[in-house]
Amino acid sequence: MNKIVIVFCLALAAAVVAGCGKSTPTDNSNTSVNANVGSPEVNYSDAASALTDGNRLFDINKTEEAITAYKKAVELDPDLGEAWFKLGIAYALIEREEKLRAQNEETEYSPTPTPEKQEKQPTRTKDSEKAFEKAVKAYKKQLDANSKDDVAYYNLGRAYDKLDEDEDALKALREAVKLKPDSTEYQTALGAILNKLAKYDEAVRVLKKALELDPENAKAEELLDQADAGRKRINFSQTPKPQSSQSNTKVNSDDAGGDVIPPGESPKPSPAKPIPSKPAPAKPTPAKMDKKGNP
Known about the structure:
It is built from 12 helices and 2 strands, in the order ααααααααααααββ. By secondary structure, the protein is mainly α. Among the domains are: 44-111 and 126-131, Tetratricopeptide repeat domain (Serine Threonine Protein Phosphatase 5, Tetratricopeptide repeat), CATH 1.25.40; 146-239, Serine Threonine Protein Phosphatase 5, Tetratricopeptide repeat.
């Protein structure tokens, strides 16, 4: 009996050891195959694939990873204007978030910031501005190679707009519309920059054209409302105010009930009234004196 128990225990121990030696399978069902996509370790084969991956990452709000992909795209192709432009957009989003965060912290710890502190803040060229400037150069290079490239003109106008170089943006977008007038997208972008420059009359015409091409263009409809409101505001401010009847009608000052003088006519001179002469002062009558000379 004891032998049976000993044999059973040895067999059980051997089974436990064998079970412990096997590795437990790891569940990788939740691990993304693209976990490292957009990280510095990723090696893109060409600029186009890096740009495509950057757009994908940006669309799912992975802005930092998108910036890495865009930077790799422009490294592989420094003349890829779209990558420079998208890089500027991504940088601008990060900069805006940082600015809001700084404002919240300043409000929390220093409710009343002094002007002296604001003036001491160093000014530097933002990363977004640098990227947009690179985009401008890239699009100009494209236009040097093909002056009929409407897409390059359109993107050049957008890059200038981001840099607040509005007149240059207007010229580029007008060229884009000229080359492809049936593009509601180009017409809408042109209308937006016209609104920005307060050229409301032209903006109304352009945005109406954009809606003719695409009645469902919500952006053009919104911009058209702004342009129409701006035009009415300017026309109202330039309308001469009617003058009161008192300023256009003069009444003879000598007689409030006299003749009314029509506007544009000079009043007739009233006859001069003789000025009465003042009576001469009476000469004192000499007092009579007696014989001794006393009065």
